[in-house]
Amino acid sequence: MYLWIKAFHLIFVIAFMAGMLIHPRYKLHQLTSKPGEPLFEAMKSASKKLRAIILTPSIILVWILGIAMIALNPSLFEQGWFHVKLLLVVILTGLHGYFVSLGRKIDNGETISARRLKLLNEFPFVLLIVIVIMVIVRPF
After folding, report:
1. Is 37 helix (H, G, I), strand (E, B) or coil?
2. Which of 65, 60, 62, 51 is nearest to 19 (CA)?
């Protein structure tokens, strides 16, 4: 049972990360136009669907399945790498909330720095790199 939970956990991590990498790009495209223009409305709609269909369900399932794995294998808490991974996952979850918040501001016509959004777009991937290293290499 543990391996099935782990497999689905990974599937939803991949879906979540795909959404986290594309959502800021949608918003960058949206920033190049004004509310009411076709591109603005198309990106607004696409990002709303991305949140509703991929991002939010995926992060919920990642957490549920992750907690299930911990319940089945509580010895994970005894390993240092797991503490780092868990901290980074909490940060990534907070970043998801921040992206949603920024997206709603853009949807409402507020101006957000494109440079800031471009830099933020790279952050989930950096976190993913460290998380994967923690899980696979288990350096400590």
Report:
1. coil
2. 51
Q: How far is CA 90 from CA 36, 71, 124, 136, in A?
A: 36, 18, 12, 19
How does pLDDT run across 50-71, given as a tens digit for each residue? 999 999 999 999 999 999 999 9
Whole-number Å distance between alpha carbons of 121 and 111 = 17
Which tokens is 6 given? 């782990």
Report d(CA 140, CA 118) in Å as an integer: 33
The Cα–Cα gap between 61 and 55 comes to: 10
Distance CA 33, CA 61 (A): 34
pTM to 2 decimals? Answer: 0.92
Length of the chain: 140
What does the alpha-carbon distance between residue 60 and residue 80 come to, in Å, rounded to a whole number? 25
φ/ψ of 128, rounded to 5, equals -60, -45
